[in-house]
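May I ask for a single protein's sequence together with how it folds?
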Amino acid sequence: MVDLSQTSEALTAEIQFIHDGLTLLHADFAEELGELLEAAQEVYVRDEIAKGLTAVATPGWDYREGCDVRADAEEDDGEDEYHYWFDDDEDY
């Protein structure tokens, strides 16, 4: 049922007050939403940077590991060659 006890001016003032409150809430909401999006964007960018660095670094680490394995193999070969010519068990 319609409440006819309030004047049109009072109702207009109440509507304006509610509208002003909603405008303030919308501004606060938009500000908080902007901060949320900014933080989410930062997380996304950091994740993409980490993925890119990993993609670039992985072949380098694999290459280095291969170099280390080859160097160890060459050292082992060198030791075997040394022991071939100079056996510790023989008397000189």
